[in-house]
């Protein structure tokens, strides 16, 4: 299954799938996804990241829940949750499982967390990571506050990679170089 493909439907008249694949072992969806017990099992989801304060957790046996208690409000501090959340997601993937990230509508909070994960553990730039999320889930659109926090997160990730001797992602290096040179104001 490619990143742009939806989780298969049960039949021609079935409702749209509750979640879609962003990347290997990474899925995004709405709160309805947590109740798709059979689908969660079929695609190997072992961790559901519930990015909400009020949405129900998964009901599938053997699926753990990590709750990130934030509202879809630009003033919420999602940044504080990104490192531990991404670490838990990567641990689930390394253990052979997959992650479903969801919020109420699968639009802002879950998109921001999936984007952060791709930046942190797949070495993608913010732009490229978000494009992958948006391709998988066209309604994805982190609110302005979350987008600003993702920009800050991207800035913190590059010095870490460099300090570990890892090469900086080429997209990031180009972006950083261009950011230093603002067009002259007339």
Automatic annotation (TrEMBL):
It is an enzyme of class 3 (hydrolase). Residues 18-159 form the Tyrosine-protein phosphatase domain. It catalyses: O-phospho-L-threonyl-[protein] + H2O = L-threonyl-[protein] + phosphate; O-phospho-L-tyrosyl-[protein] + H2O = L-tyrosyl-[protein] + phosphate; O-phospho-L-seryl-[protein] + H2O = L-seryl-[protein] + phosphate. Its EC number is 3.1.3.16, 3.1.3.48. Coiled coil: none annotated. Keywords: Hydrolase, Protein phosphatase. The keyword Hydrolase applies. Monomer. Has phosphatase activity with the synthetic substrate 6,8-difluoro-4-methylumbelliferyl phosphate (in vitro). Has almost no detectable activity with phosphotyrosine, even less activity with phosphothreonine and displays complete lack of activity with phosphoserine. The poor activity with phosphotyrosine may be due to steric hindrance by bulky amino acid sidechains that obstruct access to the active site. This is Dual specificity phosphatase 28. The gene is Dusp28.
């Amino acid at each position: 299954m490619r990143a742009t493909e939806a989780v298969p439907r049960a039949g021609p008249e079935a409702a749209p799938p509750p979640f879609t694949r962003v990347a290997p072992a990474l899925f995004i969806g709405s709160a309805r996804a947590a109740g798709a017990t059979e689908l969660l099992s079929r695609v190997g989801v072992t961790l559901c990241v519930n990015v909400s304060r009020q949405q129900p957790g998964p009901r599938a046996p053997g699926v753990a829940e990590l709750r990130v208690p934030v509202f879809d409000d630009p003033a919420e501090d999602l940044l504080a949750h990104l490192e531990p959340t991404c670490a838990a997601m990567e641990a689930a993937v390394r253990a052979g499982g997959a992650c479903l990230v969801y919020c109420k509508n699968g639009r802002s909070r879950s998109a921001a967390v999936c984007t952060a994960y791709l930046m942190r553990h797949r070495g993608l730039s913010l732009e490229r990571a978000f494009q992958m999320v948006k391709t998988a889930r066209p309604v994805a659109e982190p609110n302005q506050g979350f987008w600003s926090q993702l920009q800050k997160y991207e800035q913190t990730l590059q010095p870490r990679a460099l300090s570990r001797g890892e090469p900086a992602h080429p997209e990031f290096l180009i972006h950083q170089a261009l950011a230093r040179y603002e067009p002259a104001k007339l």
